[in-house]
UniProtKB/TrEMBL annotation:
InterPro entries to which the protein is assigned, alphabetical: DUF5981 (IPR022026)
Record domain Methylene-tetrahydrofolate reductase C-terminal-like: where: 125-197
Organism phylogeny: Bacteria, Pseudomonadati, Thermodesulfobacteriota, Desulfobacteria, Desulfobacterales
Pfam families tied to this protein: DUF5981
Source organism (scientific name): Desulfatibacillum alkenivorans DSM 16219
Protein name (Swiss-Prot/TrEMBL): Methylene-tetrahydrofolate reductase C terminal
Amino acid sequence: MVKSEWKPEEEIRLALEGKDRIAVISCAVCANLSGTGGYQGLKKMRRLAKKWGKKVVVSQCVVACCSQEIMGQTKKVHLDPVAAKCDALVMLSCSGGVKSAFITDPGMPIVAALDSMGSAVVTRKESIIAESLCTGCGQCVLTYTGGVCPIAKCPAKRQYSPCPKQPREGDQCALDPARKCVWKEIEKRGDLQALQALEARHKNSGEPRLAAEIPQEFPGLGKALAGWAMAKSGRFARIISSIL
């Protein structure tokens, strides 16, 4: 999932300055699993709005905000009927959902209340693997690092090998003594020899990527009906949140 976190309260409040009537759309999947969206996110946003003296005209949970078709149907079903009464749309979603809202153009300013932090595992288990959020570098090395993202966890942002200052003994990070050297953990879990071979391949190879298999596009009516169903299926969020 795309992990998200709430922006600072004051940042959201400033973005809503002068906007007294708001609509709130919340993602039932990634933001829901992050604890920032879903119905819990809606409740939190309603509490904040009340604290700031603002009126929530409509608040709705939809299956996925990142789909332009779902957001388009969300606009028709939930936003268009109240657009004249709203000063802003608050999005509780990853950046993909916010972009989808802008493409849909709801006819009101759009405010992102969350920050996208990276790709994450859905788990409550404490693990260095879960802690190392994917930053989307475009050249994934997790196969050879035992699932630990070195770019996310190494202060030197080393992707294929430890920095020259890596300690021979002990596990203290050479750049940040307050943390452990992530490469010591990668050495235990991964395959550094294969990782260095991959570095040479990435630097010297112009190999084309395999092409994505894009599904055949639904006919217009079928696509619209699917988007409408997803826009109306907010209760799906309760099922999703149960797997946390």
